[in-house]
Amino acid sequence: MTERIYNFSAGPAVLPEPVLEQAREDLWSLGDSGVGILEHSHRGGPFDAVIEAAEADCRSLAGVGDDHAVLFLQGGASTQFFMLPANLLPEGGTADYVNTGSWSKKAIKEAKLYGNVHVAGSSEDENFSYIPDLASLSCSDSPTYLHFTSNNTIFGTQFQSEPTPPAGAFLACDGSSDAFSRPIDLTRYGVYYAGAQKNLGPSGVTLVVIRRDLLERKERELPTMLRYATHAEQGSRYNTPPTFGIYLMGRVFRWIQDQGGLELLGKQNEEKAALLYDVLDESAFYEAAAKAGTRSLMNVTFRTPSPELDAQFVKESLAAGLSGLKGHRSVGGMRASIYNAFPRQGCQVLAEFMKDFAQRNG
Ligand SMILES: Cc1ncc(COP(=O)(O)O)c(C=O)c1O
After folding, report:
1. Are residues 205 and 241 in the same domain?
2. How far apart are CA 238 and CA 25, in angstroms?
3. Which of 120, 117, 187, 182 minimizes the C-alpha distance to 151?
4. Are residues 219 and 318 in the same domain?
């Protein structure tokens, strides 16, 4: 069998090996059913067990109680950019957004289709290299919600804690690139969503955790599939859901539990990122793209002294078995995405490679 290499891809991204091994067996036959997970009806008993376990494990990891519904939807986080305001932003109402990068901007663009958007804070002035100070956010008078992007995949910045919405507003979050990577209190959120393909599973399934009282709001007529209430009422099975994605997300939740839960996983993620940030901080050769204090534990962005050396770094690192390190074009340089399933040893290998490359080219 081909040996796996270290995959620093920003998403779809590396998945836990024990999960992949289990999936290999379950593709052939889910348990002793004699039918593979891809081939089971979404309405049969075996899949009932799969989706119920995924939801239960999601709830127990993040302390989600009955006040919130857990939904497994399709269309990626990009669909949530418009589903959230379409369902919950009243005609003429205002939603506040913190603009911390490309994904926030896309979310803002969609919200403007349904109501007013007030930008409560932004880091666009310095090409999104930092997270605005939470105390400096200035919300509008009575927004429906305050939306933020907890981790900025492209720029490599991350909120250290969540902003507080004004009284009467609920908190909404795009958690796609740091979902379940550290302890989170989802009871503080009105709507939390995350595309799975970075921290939680394969592309094609999106986790949405939504406060149940919000499901009762009906701001406008919407197609049935676009209403949160439809999916909540039907247990995410109004139509045929992404069964394999839900299965795999459930396996990843179980794997996180096996790691000791979010507290321990968060510590592991901190240690992994520190291996790389320590090299950046100790080196005069590299420049970290994100400002200290708001750097991401998931996407470590950095540059060498020149675009030519950046290109050489990417080429040589790939030859050394480190793939996916080229940075996004809007930031340049390199990006090491080290989500939940990325192994600590891979960070050690990259740290050594970085030191060696700096020595040879500095
Ligand atoms: C923070 C963030 N939000 C949203 C998206 C878009 O997600 P999707 O491709 O699932 O629509 C991404 C994808 O990389 C992302 O990183």
Report:
1. yes
2. 28
3. 182
4. no
pLDDT confidence bin for 103, thresholds 50/70/90: very high
Q: Which tens digit of pLDDT belongs to each residue from 224-253?
A: 999 999 999 999 999 999 999 999 999 999
Q: What is the CATH number of the domain that holds 333?
A: 3.90.1150.10
Q: Say if residues 105 and 148 touch (Cβ distance below 8 Å).
A: no
Taking the C-alpha atoms of 158, 160, 164 and 169 in order, what is their torsion angle to the nearest 10 degrees? 30
**Ligand 1 centroid distance, CA of 74 (Å):** 13
pLDDT at residue number 331: 93
Residue positions annotated with a catalytic role: 103, 174, 198
| 199 CA → ligand 1 middle, Å | 12
**Which residues form the domain of 343?**
261-361
> Does residue 1 have a pLDDT over 90?
no
CATH number of domain containing 202: 3.40.640.10
**Closest atom of ligand 1 to CA, residue 78:** 11
Query: What SS3 state is found at 172?
Result: strand
Centre of ligand 1 to C-alpha 195, Å, is 6
In a domain, 274, yes or no: yes
| pTM of the predicted structure, to 2 decimals | 0.98
Q: Within a domain: residue 192?
A: yes
Ligand 1 pocket test, pick from 153, 199, 298 with the greatest ligand atom count within 8 Å of Cβ, gives: 153
Residues 194-222 have a mean pLDDT of 98
Structural domain includes residue 96: yes
Nearest CA residue ID for atom 5, ligand 1:
77
